[in-house]
Amino acid sequence: MQTFKALVVESGDPYVAQIRQVKLEELPQGEVLVRVAYSSLNYKDGLAITGAGKVIRSFPMVPGIDLAGTVVESASPEYKPGDAVVLTGWGLGERHWGGLAELARVPAGWLVPLPEGLTLQQAMGIGTAGFTAMLAVMALEAHGLDKSREVLVTGAAGGVGSLATAILAHLGYRVVAATGRLSEEDYLKSLGAAEVLERSLLAAPARPLESERFGGAVDTVGGAVLAGVLPRMAYGASVAACGNAGGAKLETTVFPFILRGVNLLGIDSVMCPREKRLLAWQRLARELPKPLLEATLKTVPLEEVPALAPAILQGQVRGRVVVRLP
Ligand code: NDP
């Protein structure tokens, strides 16, 4: 009987997460069996592994909201054994056993072929965070981002923030990186940030409209920070709202919207349609310079994940954490 290693959240009451051997037949249904080479640790995985947020829909559950690996078996004509594949979203690690395991069985429609020019490790260096950052950039561009004004990235030292900073800077925008960790100034400048801003300057109560500064923004923090970003946007500018690491509640006024035509764009990487998904991955392979990607990532074995999970929720993890399997 074949078994493999996985991080399993066994139960929600009491909350138990442990690394153990799992039987092949325990895997959920799906046309494609993938040998996972890398997964990554995202904010949502922190919530899933610690139980700090109710993201897991059924127990037991293997967390890990993304994976990159090689097809072992396939009942789909789209994939054959040996194909390199990538998966983000679709409820992986929340409703369907995820990437923090040596094997995963998934629906073929959830996979995308590994984009040309990326290794499996680099694909997970990008992972859900980089994919989301690219979706945010694409959304801003579709609403008329131009280079005449600065672009703000909040939560800049985190996963989505680091990669959004690197992508935007590489595309030629003047990026202002907002962070709660000024100790990461050199890191953020190495990714291309032109200026690093202390997060509390944005989170302090703002007037309904401040002076127009930013021509676009990628916000990963939400809460008081997003409330402070909106009044500082230039006329007609857009904010791509990706996350809520700093809170889900948004207290603002209508003035940025009705007096400055500011657009608040919601970014959802989970249910992203296939065509857009493929385009975002192609752009990531082309437009995120490899040295910048390498600078954001740290690779750890599965055994280190349980200890890192609380740290990502406390905003202590820099850039991207790639998880190597086995
Ligand atoms: P990380 O933990 O890597 O980054 C989050 C960053 O936010 C931290 O590094 C920190 O940045 C800042 N931060 C953390 N805690 C707080 C706090 N209490 N108050 C203010 N700022 C804080 O997470 P990810 O980059 O993986 O994800 C960021 C957010 O985006 C999460 O909410 C996540 O759920 C969401 N997300 C959404 C997706 C979507 O499809 N919409 C996909 C992926 C992620 P710094 O120290 O620089 O201030």
Low-confidence stretches: none
Strand content: 25-35%
Globular, elongated, flat, extended or rod-shaped: what is the shape? globular
Under the CATH scheme, the architecture of the largest domain is Alpha-Beta Complex
Q: Taking all residues together, what is the mean pLDDT?
A: 97
Give the count of helical stretches: 10
The succession of helices and strands, N to C, reads EEEHEEEEHEHEHEHEHEHEHHEHE
- Give the strand tally: 15
In the residues, how many domains can be counted? Answer: 2
User: Helical amount among residues, as a percent range?
Assistant: 25-40%
Distance separating the two termini: 18 Å
Topology:
Blueprint: E1 3-12, E2 15-23, E3 32-41, H1 43-50, E4 66-74, E5 84-88, E6 103-106, E7 112-113, H2 120-142, E8 150-154, H3 159-170, E9 175-179, H4 185-190, E10 195-198, H5 199-203, E11 214-219, H6 223-229, E12 233-241, H7 255-258, E13 263-266, H8 274-287, H9 290-296, E14 297-301, H10 305-313, E15 320-324
Parallel strand pairs: 8-9, 8-11, 9-10, 11-12, 12-13, 14-15
Antiparallel strand pairs: 1-2, 3-4, 3-6, 3-15, 4-5, 5-7
Bound molecules: NADPH dihydro-nicotinamide-adenine-dinucleotide phosphate.
NADPH dihydro-nicotinamide-adenine-dinucleotide phosphate is lined by residues 42-44, 128-129, 132, 155-161, 179-181, 199, 220-221, 225, 242-246, 267-270, 312, 315, 317.
